[in-house]
Amino acid sequence: DGRFSGIPLTDLSSDQREQMQVTLQKLIEPFRQADRREALQSLQAQGGLDACYLAFFTDHDLGRDKVWDNWRLEGPSFVWHFRGAPHVHVWVNVADSHQVQLNA
User: Which of 2, 19, 83, 98 is most buried, by CB atoms within 10 Å?
Assistant: First the structure.
């Protein structure tokens, strides 16, 4: 329905938005160059990071250290979900269209 949890990246300061670009590059770095390029093209076609939201979740705080172990970067056709508890899980979905149905 187009509603996402968290803060819109457009609400971040310019230096924070620049850091999100750096973070995105680090997230996709392990993938093949062709896949990185395709993911970025798909993300850009749906508004880029400016169309995304960043959410942190306080459940499953590993070590009760108040460090966010669960977070989600999400936009119309892009989801990167990281869950650090009870062990690491990463769920990624990148599509050319916002009409692709997600299961998580």
Answer: 83
